[in-house]
Write a structure and sequence with these properties.
single chain; mainly alpha; binds acetyl coenzyme *A
């Protein structure tokens, strides 16, 4: 029997890197991460500055168009996005095929994929104009899709977009507003949610972005590629971690129980992990978690709430960061650790958390997809494998086995 691993090592032609821990799959000018220093830059701009000073629409423009917009360019871009916020009316019928208690991510995978059946005029990926229209459509329609998934799950009528509102304000109204009643957007909540969207906009070649690129590398249409990204994001080791983190904080319930959960996370015989902790790339504090923690306080103050899970989260972080297990393995809070606390205070049920992540990450997905398709050297993504099955053998008819 030939040891294929040895053979591959000798030829030097293949690298075996399960989980892609040290393999770059592409070149990209979008996002830079220095995981040891806890640095995240979008087209050179630090995430902290973008989160504090810009808006989600500005960041979307930056990721798609390489540079920050002038005020005229921003106004034009916002206007374009606004014009695309409506969903084709027949898509409302499509929603009715889902069970009422379907997870919003299941609905979003289905509806995002179904867009390719409605917007044929933006599926020719060889035409840069069509690619940009599809990108604008996806960015614009995602809040409508997510809000409708929520409305469907609570049995309320869908609300049409109100294009007088901001991107984020409109999403809040479509989610929490009720027909025939005025919905007043709370500016602190609007700003906080917009900031959360900025923090989730892109994060280089994470699992869902790599999925979008791989799907797109075959020439698949952008709506199908984004549906693939949503499906991947749903997993608890990726976007699903924000939902899992809040569930964990509720399960811990009070600070006295934290040591019990830290002990479980360290126990190799227990599959439990501290959700919202650890990251493939960050071996330092995730800079997004810093902004997120600050935003919790702002939202609590504006809404006059004081959820005890925040105290549990703060104390859990403090204890874990003093524990040799977490120090040695360089496990710090990631973006998902505090985001659930904020989203829950705003009123989103936990099942919507990953849907909000998908909404924001759509910007990164479409920007990465455009970058890939525009590359003249672009090839279909086709990883190799190390075969570990049986060597060649002869077929035995079924009666003789
Ligand atoms: N709690 C306890 N131990 C942990 C945790 C955790 N949250 N995360 C990692 N470890 C331990 C592992 O058991 C492993 O220990 P070992 O070396 O003794 O076997 C070591 O740290 C390295 O962990 P890996 O799983 O090998 O690291 P990887 O880079 O593959 O995983 C991941 C990163 C998936 C994020 C992991 O840290 C994790 O599962 N965290 C919890 C889920 C989570 O918060 N995910 C959100 C990620 S951010 C995002 O997607 C937006």
């Amino acid at each position: 029997v030939v040891d294929i691993r040895k053979l591959y090592a000798q030829t030097g032609k293949f690298t075996y890197d399960p989980g892609f821990t040290s393999t770059a799959s592409c070149e990209s000018g979008l996002t830079y991460i220095d995981g040891d220093e806890g640095v995240l830059l979008h087209r050179g701009y630090p995430i902290g500055q973008l989160a504090e000073q810009s808006s989600f629409m500005e960041v979307a423009y930056l990721l798609l168009n390489h540079e920050l917009p002038s005020s005229d360019e921003l106004a034009k871009f916002e206007n374009t996005i606004t014009r695309h916020t409506m969903l084709h009316e027949q898509l409302a019928t499509f929603y009715r095929g889902f069970r009422r208690d379907a997870h919003p991510m299941a609905v979003m995978c289905g509806v995002a994929g179904a867009l390719s059946a409605f917007y044929h005029d933006s599926t020719d990926i060889t035409d840069p104009k069509q690619r940009m229209i599809a990108s604008h459509r996806l960015i614009a329609k995602m809040p409508t899709i997510a809000a409708m998934a929520y409305k469907y799950s609570v049995g309320q009528p869908f609300l049409y977009p109100d294009n007088k509102l901001s991107y984020t304000g409109n999403f809040l109204r479509m989610t929490f507003g009720v027909p025939a009643e005025e919905y007043e957007v709370n500016p602190v909540v609007e700003k906080a949610l917009d900031r959360i969207f900025i923090l989730h906009a892109d994060h280089e070649q994470n699992a869902s972005t790599s999925t979008v690129r791989l799907a797109g590398s075959s020439g698949a249409n952008p709506f199908a590629c984004i549906a693939a990204g949503i499906a991947c994001l749903w997993g608890p080791a990726h976007g699903g971690a924000n939902e899992a983190a809040l569930n964990m904080l509720h399960e811990i319930g009070r600070p006295e129980r934290i040591p019990e959960f830290i002990a479980r996370a360290k126990d190799k015989n227990d599959p439990f992990r501290l959700m919202g902790f650890g990251h493939r790339v960050y071996k330092n504090y995730d800079p997004r978690a810093t902004v997120m923690q600050k935003t919790v306080r702002e939202v609590f103050e504006a809404l006059k709430v004081n959820d005890p899970v925040f105290e549990v989260a703060l104390q859990l972080e403090e204890m874990a960061l003093k524990d040799p297990y977490f120090v040695e393995k360089k496990l710090f809070p990631n973006v998902d650790f505090y985001s659930g606390v904020i989203l829950s205070a705003i009123g989103f049920p936990t099942t919507m958390f990953t849907a909000l992540f998908a909404l924001a990450r759509t910007v990164g997905w479409v920007a990465q997809w455009n970058e890939m398709i525009s590359d003249p050297e672009q090839k279909i993504g086709r990883p190799r494998q190390l075969y570990t099955g049986p060597t060649q053998r002869d077929y035995v008819p079924v009666g003789q086995r």
